[in-house]
Fold this protein.
Amino acid sequence: MAEIWRNIKDFILSYSYQSGQYFLVSFPKTGRTWLMYMINQMQDLSSVENDLIFNEHDNSEIILENGYRNNPKDIFNFSKRYKYRRAKLIFLVRDPRDVVVSHFHQITKRANNPFVFKSISTFIRDEILGFNRIIYYYNLWYNNKSIPKDFLLIRYEDLFQNGCYELQRINEYLCLNISDNDIRSIYNNSSADKMRRRELAGDLESFKYFGSSKNQLKVRNARIGGYKKELTQSDIRYCNKKLEDLNKYFNYI
């Protein structure tokens, strides 16, 4: 019954924005801040009238930087995404093994009243908060990807390795019509190192300061496969086994 009422509420909420509104949706720590930083620059250079893209974690976060804690079971209790049925949606994903490491540092070091875990291994194995949450959320969106008016999957790894091509896909999806040279310039000026320096200088809007050590920064490692240096072999085996449950659509198996 609770899910039925939630679906009705989301159906009604879908009329709170205009048809065809763009959304960027992602699990925390998948590179959403980086991608939005580049999309905002693309929109600034575009001559096309276009509403700003809405970006959100779709209730997948477990704590906000201000310390507010969501009900972590909500994403397990509500399986439909009718709120987005009138939207054009970009879904951003990243290797869940890298996500879970970055997410651990986020919730334990970048929030007021942060979570405390005995170890990262304990966090990973938490069925509600840890690695399983990411797998479940990706699969949930695979099963809901036909609900929006349009759906575009963007993988962090593709954005990292072939960024100009991925930004061109987004450029076409958002109908921004900016040039290849502009895309190349935006991508080159948005590297992790440059953004990290700007964060440390306090030059990135809406970035709250929690400390200057690497694991306290919003722009942390920003690399592919960093989990291999931060997880034990036992942790990696656990994650790899769970990864078998992820739909092959995401290409992380």
